Amino acid sequence: MNTILVLNGPNLNLLGQRQPETYGYETLEDVARLCEAACAEGFTVRMLQSNHEGQIIDWIHEARGTAVGIVINPGAFTHTSIAILDALNTYDPPVIEVHISQVHKREAFRHHSYVSHRADGVIAGLGLEGYAAAIRRICQIAAKGAPA
Fold first, then answer.
1. Most CB atoms closer than 10 Å: which of 12, 26, 46, 63?
2. Residue 33 contacts by C-beta under 8 Å, 6 or more apart in sequence?
3. Confidence bin at 103 (pLDDT 50/70/90)
4. Mind listing the pLDDT tens digit for each residue in 118-136?
């Protein structure tokens, strides 16, 4: 059980095409390669993306007992989904919230995150490198067996 679940929310399937001035030209496939490269030996990444809130919740439920940590970029669900927060609250290992852009320099509605209420760490504004940093941190925590 050394799998790290990387969850991506709505519109991240269009990464590289949608608002490249904000999110860059790299794709979700580039994120997957970066996450795999950031994994410590003995760890693997399971990368998933959905535009559907219920699917993300189902994956969080499945992660209970199967994943050593979750890296989540909930996209717009960050600001709206108490249901995703509730699902994350049922998951004990570390959760790290990632945002490609610096959400606090954007519209005011993006400044609030429901997911942050559960996240053990939040990374925003580092571009795709935020995913790699989150993966490295979960590997450290899981390798030590330490709490987040």
1. 63
2. none
3. confident
4. 999 999 999 999 999 999 9
Q: Which active-site residues does the annotation give?
A: 23, 99
Give the H or E element holding residue 131: helix 129-144
19, pLDDT greater than 80: no
CA quadruple 132, 85, 143, 3: dihedral positive or negative?
negative
- Amino acid identity of residue 97, one-letter, is E
d(CA 17, CA 27) in angstroms, rounded, equals 8
Domains in the chain, CATH or no CATH each: 3-144 (3.40.50.9100)
Going by pLDDT thresholds of 50, 70 and 90, the confidence category of residue 102 is confident
User: Dihedral through CA 88, CA 124, CA 148, CA 13, nearest 10?
Assistant: 50
Mean pLDDT value of segment 23-38: 91
Q: Are 32 and 45 in contact (CB under 8 A)?
A: yes
Residue among 84, 63, 78 at smallest CA distance from 138:
63
- 131 φ/ψ sector (left φ>0, alpha ψ -120 to 50, else beta): alpha
